[in-house]
Amino acid sequence: MSKPTVRSDTKFYNHEFQVQGGVTVPLADWASLRIGGLYQDLSEGRLYNPIKDQTEPRTRNIAVRPSLLLSPAPGLEILLKAEVDRLRDYGNALVSVAQPLDATRAPYPVVGDTGTRYSNYDVAPYYSDELSFMDANLYQADINYDLLGGKLTSTSAWRTSHSDVQFGSDGVNHAQTYMNLLWQHYRQFSQELRFSGTYGRLDITAGGYYQRDTLGIDLMQEFTLGGFGLTGAATTPIGRVETYDQNNRVYSGFVDATYRITDRLSLSGGVRYADINKTAGQALFGTGVIPHLDFDTTRSDLQAGRNAALDPIFNAVFRSAQHNFPFGTLRLSENHWQPQAIVQYEIAPRNKVYLKFVRGAKSGGFDFSYAGGTPSAAAFRPEFASMFEAGAKGLILDNRLEYSVAIFRTTFTALQQSVFQNLAFVVSNVGKARSQGVELDLTARPADGLELGFAGSYLDAKFVDFPGAACSSAQNAGLQPGCVGGFQDLAGTPTQYASKWTGTFRVDYARPLGSGDYQVAAGASIFARSRYNAGAYNDPRMEQGAFAQIDAHLDFGPTDKRWRMSLFGRNLGNKRPLEYAVTPPGQPTAVVGTYSRGRQIGLKLSFSVR
Q1: Which residues form the TonB-dependent receptor-like beta-barrel domain (predicted)?
Q2: Distances (CA, A) of 585 to 39, 43, 421, 477
C-alpha cells in the first residue's frame, strides 16, 4: 500500500490569503480516498467606500471536495465525488462612470473614480446590504467499465445551488436611488451513458444524456428615484417584484466517429440530437420598499410586501402590466440536430492541417423579467450558430517551435440578447451577428530552459441585424440621432467586448543551481488589446481604449518539485480598464459600470509530500 500524498498551494497578496490542496489516502490496493479543499479570504477589496469606511468587495470562499476511487474488479473503475462550495462576496464594485446628459437630472458627486465607491443601502428605507452569496453542492458518480474492446462510462450527477446578488447605485449627494436583488434556486439531475472504442482505423463514441432541472428566480428592484433628482410621485419609495418558476427536461443522443482513411488523412463526423421541454410560470407585481432583505429572504417575504395602493404609481413609473401567469401557462417544446465534420491531413510528421464545420443551437426559453400582459410574448426563440474553421498546427525547427494558426467565421442567427425596456433588461431575439478572424499561437524553445510564447488574434465581430437594441445614453438625451421609439438599429456595429487585436507575449527561463538539486525560474508576460465597448449600446461613453498589462514571477525550489516558492506580480502597471458598463434604471442618460482589479503582488508556496 502506498503512502498518503499531500499537495498544497498557498498564496498571500494584497490582503488576500488563499490556500488550496488535497490529501490522498490509500485505503487498499483497490481503493483510495482524497480530500481536497479551498479557502480564500480577501480582507481588503479593490475599492474604498468612505461612506462605510471600508473596502469592497471583500471575499470569503470555502470549498470541500472529497472523492473515493474504487477498482473492485479488473476493467471496472468507480469514482464517487462531491463538492460543497460556500462563496461569499461582501459589497459590490459598481461605480458611476459618466454623468447624466439630461439637464433636468442632478449630476453624480463623483464619476470615473477607479478606486473609490460611494454606496450604502444598509440605511432607511432599505436596511439591506450589498452582497453576492452562493451555496452550491455537487454529488457525482463516474463508472468506467471495459466492454467489447472499448469503455462504457456512466456519469450520474445531482447538483443544487442557491444564490443571492444584491447591489445598489449612487445618487445625488450619494443618496440611495436603486437597489437590485436577485435570488436563484436551482436543482438538477443528469445521467449520461457513453461508449468509446477503437476498431482498426475507426474511433467511435456514442451515447445518450438525460437532464431534469428546476429553476426558481425572484427579482426585486427597489427605487427611491428622488435620489436621481426626480420630483413628484416618482419619488415615492416603490418596489417591483418578478417571480419565475421553470421545469426543464432534456433527452439527448450523440455519436462521433473518426476514420483514418490513410496514415495521414482522417475524417471525423458527428451529430447530437436534443429534445427539450420547458414549462414555466411568471408573475410581476408592485410593492413598497421592503427592508432587511438578505440571503435567507423567501418569496413569501416578497409577496407579503404587495401593496395595491401603490398600483397607480407603479403603472406610471414602470409602464408595465402587473400579472400572474400560473405555472404551466408558459410551455416550450423544441428539438435540434447539431452536426459537425472535421477533415485532417498530416502534411509532415507532427504537422497537420484541418477543416472544421460545426452547427450549434442554444435553446429558447422565457424571459423571467417579462413586463407585458400577453403570456406568449414572454417567449424567445432558440439561437443558432454555424462555424467554419481552417487551420494548421504542429512542430518545426527540430521540434523547437510549436505553432497553431486558425482562421474562422461564425454566424449567429436569431441571436438572444438582453434589451433594456421599462427599467429592466429583457431577453429577446434580435437578429444576426457575425464573428470572423485569425488566431495564432507560437511557443519557441531556442535554448535549454528558455521558452518564448505568443498568442494573438484578429477579430472582426459585428451585428449584421439588430433593429431592437436599447438606445445609448446620448440618444436617450436627444443629443444623437437614431433612437426611434426607445430603440436603435445596431446593424454594422461591433459586438460588446470585441477588440480587433488581442495578444500576449511571454518569456520564461529556468536553470539549475549548483549541483542541480535546486532550480530558479523567472518569467514575464505582457497582455495587450485594442479598444472595445464595455456596454451593449455602442455608446461612445462606454468605450475602453487600448491598454496593456504586465505580469511577472520569480520561482525557487528543488528540481523534483517537492516544494516551490514563487514571488509574483499581476497587472504591475496598475491598469484599471472598464470591464462592464450600463445605463442605470431611472437614469438613462448616465453610465455606471465596473473597473478591473489593479496591481497585485504576492507570494505563493506549493508543496507535495508523499
Answers
A1: 109-572
A2: 36, 31, 10, 14
Q: What beta strand segments (E) does 169-264 contain?
A: 178-199, 202-223, 238-260
Sign (positive or negative) of CA dihedral 197, 203, 208, 211? positive
Report the distance separating Cα 500 and Cα 457, nearest Å.
8
Q: Model-level pTM?
A: 0.93
Is the per-residue pLDDT at 106 higher than 90? Answer: no
Instruction: State residue 320's pLDDT score.
Output: 86
**Cα–Cα distance, 447 to 442 (Å, whole number):** 15
Is the pLDDT at 321 greater than 60? The verdict is yes
Between CA 56 and CA 597, with CA 63 as vertex, the angle to 5 degrees is: 30
Residues with Cβ within 8 Å of residue 4, at least 6 apart in sequence: 23, 24, 25, 26, 610
Q: Measured between alpha carbons, how far is 49 from 57 in angstroms, rounded to an integer? A: 10
Q: How far apart are the first and last CA of the chain?
A: 12
| pLDDT tens readout for residues 375-429 | 999 999 999 999 999 999 999 999 999 999 999 999 999 999 876 655 667 788 8
- Which of 129, 35, 118 is CA-nearest to residue 91? 129
- DSSP letter string, 386-400: EEEEEEEEEEETTTT
Among 80, 84, 194, which Cα is nearest to 145's? 194
Cβ neighbours of 368 (radius 10 Å): 22
Exposure on the CB side of residue 228, measured as CA atoms within 13 A: 29
Residue-wise pLDDT for 167-207, tens only, equals 998 887 888 889 999 999 999 999 999 999 999 999 999 99
Q: DSSP states of 317-374 as a string?
A: HH----EEEEEEEEEEEEEEEEEEEEEEEEEETTEEEEEEEEEEEE--EE-TT--SS-
3-class secondary structure, 577: coil
DSSP, res 314: H
Closest CA to 489 of 471, 473, 476: 471
What's the length of the chain? Answer: 610
User: What digits encode the pLDDT tens for the residues 115-150?
Assistant: 999 999 999 999 999 999 999 999 999 999 999 999
| 8 A C-beta contact, residue 378 and residue 282 | yes
Query: What's the Cα-to-Cα distance from 353 to each of 3, 43, 339, rounded to whole Å?
Result: 46, 50, 21
Distance CA 279, CA 330 (A): 6
Rounded Cα gap, residues 556 and 335, in angstroms: 55
Q: How far apart are CA 27 and CA 66, in angstroms?
A: 14
What is the structure's pLDDT at 422? 56
Q: Is the pLDDT of residue 45 over 90?
A: yes
- Cβ of 219: how many Cβ atoms within 10 Å? 19
DSSP helix/strand/coil, 127: coil
CATH numbers and ranges of domains, the chain: 1-90 (no CATH), 121-380 (2.40.170.20), 420-610 (no CATH)
Strand 351-362 to 31-42 pairing: unpaired
Residues 6+ apart with CB under 8 A from 178: 168, 169, 171, 221, 222, 223, 224, 225, 227, 584, 585, 586
- Output the pLDDT for position 456: 98
Task: Please tell me the predicted confidence (pLDDT) of residue 1.
Answer: 44
Q: Which pLDDT score is estimated for 319?
A: 83
